[in-house]
Design brief:
By secondary structure, the chain is an all-alpha fold. It contains 5 helices and no strands.
Length: 164
């Protein structure tokens, strides 16, 4: 017959250990009824807090999605504005070049024509010269004497060839 030792058997070891526990230790390891009730209330409270956190997280996620959508829309609008500004800048640059060319053509055309009480036209006095010309043509009735009529006619002839 084969002899078995209880020392190698896991059940024998567990049974042996269980048998060594005192009555107080067994009571301390088991849940008391009040502990179960307290744990049940704590679990209910934790479940309630988890539910509230999940609801709060859902609201925050919805707010984040809305915010991301708004940011995306703003970024698209900004990109469109930047593109429009670039087009406007290019148009302004083209207009500035055209204006510069016209002002140079006007300076060259009127270089030999002297307005009363003014130096010959140049880049330095260009604005004042143009203002005087504008005044002369706006108020032609003030410039009806023969000398002024000849001056206005000379100016007309000088600028006739400028392409606008």
């Amino acid at each position: 017959y084969l002899l078995f030792s209880l020392s190698g058997c896991p059940r024998a070891t567990f049974t042996g250990k269980k048998g060594k526990l005192s009555g107080d230790e067994i009571l301390n390891t088991k849940f008391k009824t009040s502990d179960v009730l307290e744990n049940d209330e704590e679990i209910k409270q934790l479940n309630k807090e988890i539910s509230e956190l999940n609801e709060s997280n859902s609201e925050m996620e919805a707010a984040m999605v809305k915010l991301q959508s708004q940011i995306s829309t703003m970024e698209k609008n900004l990109k469109n504005i930047e593109e429009e500004n670039k087009i406007i800048e290019e148009q302004n640059e083209a207009l500035f070049l055209e204006l510069s060319g016209l002002s140079q053509a006007l300076i060259q055309s009127l270089a030999n024509i002297r307005l009363p009480h003014m130096e010959p036209i140049s880049e330095q006095n260009f604005d004042a010269y143009v203002n005087t010309l504008t005044d002369m043509y706006t108020n032609q009735e003030c410039y009806q004497n023969p000398e002024n009529k000849d001056l206005l006619e000379s100016i007309k002839q000088a600028v006739k060839g400028i392409q606008v």
